[in-house]
């Protein structure tokens, strides 16, 4: 497979021919842009195509946004979703495309993902050189489509959340982050939160959305400045307090501590006093996770453990569940105590 270089950075990735990607379907919008589900014709594989900040393109038709339905353009809601809420009609030749300001974000994500190979990191299949769908235009990262969505699905009140599954997912997250932090130079995620952890067909965790990520030796400007879609509740306090503070391994660990609470509590985290997040009663075996959470979200970065140090703790709880030392029923009861 040939490769394509993106912009001045020289970032390269396998080239996905645009004619191979067909039947696009809008799936959702995040901090960096819109994601579309499509079919790779030759591979017979469902893929996800990420269009960076597609709703903010200056070439949108006046008074509205483009939509896609059943293979045709029509008047209606913006592809960005209900949060946009604008009505409008399409215009011939108008396209959504990444602005020049967004191109570094695509390049960062491609650079971060291109050489990664781990069971718990979403693999990059390639990048389109010049996508020319009716409503989008420009290069876009292509990954395998994760049919079960993200960890955010598990935070819905109606979603079953078996305790053993939660423990396995936490362990897989730790393993994925151990892998990122073991890269040379170290790769930081910067935006670890439930929507950025995808679930495959067997509900295994895949770290995704590396548009904010950077290698530790590279430039880190904008880490805490709100340059992108970082969620404040998951952002380390040192990054919130000082926009010039450089992100570190400890920043990712803090985010994991908050994410761990969200997974166990079954709801999105908010910026509150951490003591209010925990109750005293935790069933024996889960106090390990309670202690780990508190260490991870320490306000002093140097007191937070590394992901390698987190690994034995999440593994210990998972082993207890597997051996039956903590039954599924008791595990679910224990999980409810952190809500």
Share of helix among residues? Answer: 25-40%
Percent in strands: 15-25%
Q: What is the 3D shape?
A: globular
| Head-to-tail CA distance between termini | 49 Å
Please name the fourth-level CATH homologous superfamily of the largest domain. Answer: Transferase(Phosphotransferase) domain 1
Number of DSSP strand runs: 13
Kindly provide the name of the CATH class of the largest domain: Mainly Alpha
How many DSSP helices? Answer: 7
CATH T-level topology of the largest domain? Transferase(Phosphotransferase), domain 1
- The strand order across the widest sheet is 3-4-5-9-8
Q: Which secondary-structure class do the elements indicate? A: alpha+beta
Number of domains in the coordinates? 2
Q: Stretches where pLDDT falls below 50 for ≥5 residues?
A: 5-9, 54-94, 218-228, 279-283
What is the architecture of the largest domain at the second tier of CATH? Orthogonal Bundle
**Biggest sheet descriptor:** 5 strands, antiparallel
Mean pLDDT: 73
Radius of gyration: 21 Å
Q: What is the succession of H and E elements? A: EEEEEEEHEEHEEEEHHHHH
InterPro entries: Kinase-like_dom_sf, Prot_kinase_dom, Ser-Thr/Tyr_kinase_cat_dom, Ser/Thr_kinase_AS, Ser/Thr_Kinases-Pseudokinases
Organism: Eschrichtius robustus
Domain Protein kinase: 21-318
GO molecular function: ATP binding; JUN kinase kinase kinase activity
What does this structure look like?
The structure is a single chain. Helix 2 (163-181) runs antiparallel to helix 4, helix 2 (163-181) runs antiparallel to helix 6 (307-323) and helix 4 (249-265) packs across helix 5. By secondary structure, the chain is of the alpha+beta class. It is built from seven helices and 13 strands. The chain has two domains: 3-144, 2-Layer Sandwich (Phosphorylase Kinase, domain 1), CATH 3.30.200.20; 151-336, Orthogonal Bundle (Transferase(Phosphotransferase), domain 1), CATH 1.10.510.10. The strands form five sheets. A five-stranded antiparallel β-sheet has the order 3-4-5-9-8, with helices on one face. The chain has a two-stranded antiparallel sheet with strand order 1-2. It has a two-stranded antiparallel sheet with strand order 6-7. The termini are far apart. The protein has helices at residues 103-114, 163-181, 237-241, 249-265, 287-296, 307-323, 328-336, and strands at 3-6, 11-14, 21-29, 33-40, 45-52, 76-77, 87-88, 124-132, 137-144, 187-188, 197-199, 205-207, 214-215. Helices cover 26% and strands 19% of the residues.
